[in-house]
Amino acid sequence: MLESEILLHCVRLIFGGLCAFAAIMLCAKRREAGVVCLLAFVLTFYARTVYQILLSLGIIANEGPSFFDIPVLTILFETIPPFFLLLALIFMIFKNK
Questions:
Q1: Which of 14, 97, 71 is nearest to 34 (CA)?
Q2: Alpha-carbon gap, residue 57 to 22, rounded angstroms
Q3: Exposure check for the chain: N or C terminus, fewer CB within 10 A?
């Protein structure tokens, strides 16, 4: 693995961790459905980033059940974060009306 890839992984982990920390702090101040869904989005997006890094480093294998030759875990990590973001935006839109 190239040093530039390792540096990129470190930057992703650092900024993802900072985003998760900020989202947790925001959720501690404002307990609203939109903010909680935003926190869930950030945490699942960070988990997706960690999963992708572990896959690229070869620490975990992409084996197990698959759906149309795509591993189910990959499908979940690709679809759950946008779902939580969509929920957060919907809750925030309808809160203002």
A1: 97
A2: 28
A3: C
